[in-house]
Amino acid sequence: MYDTAPLHRAYREVVAAAEEVSGAEPAALPAGEWDAEQVLAHLGLVTAGALAAVAAVAAGSAATFDNRISQDAWALRRVIDRASGGPELRRRVAAQGEALCAFAASLGAQELEAPLPTLLLSHGEPVFEGAMTIRQLLDGLAAGELPAHAAQLRATAVPTVPTVPTGPAADAAVGTVPQVPVP
Questions:
Q1: Could you give the percent of the chain with pLDDT greater than 90?
Q2: 0.70 cut: is pTM over it?
Q3: What stretches of 33-141 show up as alpha helix (H) in DSSP?
């Protein structure tokens, strides 16, 4: 049985990051960097691919994982258009994350250790080509892919400067109210 807690947390964090930047002023992104919708479309494609691999293994079929389609500009635009943009993309990623966690929790030890021929690209360049297990794929999503994209999502919006409260109420909130001796 697979402990889905880290994967659940990672999906919740990605969705929270997407919520934080929705409606925010877009940051000036370097050429070639994805905007928030493109990041979410990418994550939707990655998660759908992971779901397909997990389902194939659970069905006793041969499985592979290849993330090339999740980096294709046309595929990203198609997902964005079909989902009708930001709010639906956030819901899609959240729902797919829940489905992946539910499916992963149902796998037995042998299924989790099933070899998975894998091709991973980043910015169009291969970063991994070989076999990994379903467990390694799921752990990689939880520990690497999803946290990196949560940070990337946050970088798509201009940071807001928090207002700093002042005065007695602010002092009380942080526990720094000067103590006046009682006579």
A1: 80
A2: yes
A3: 36-58, 73-83, 86-105, 109-112, 134-140
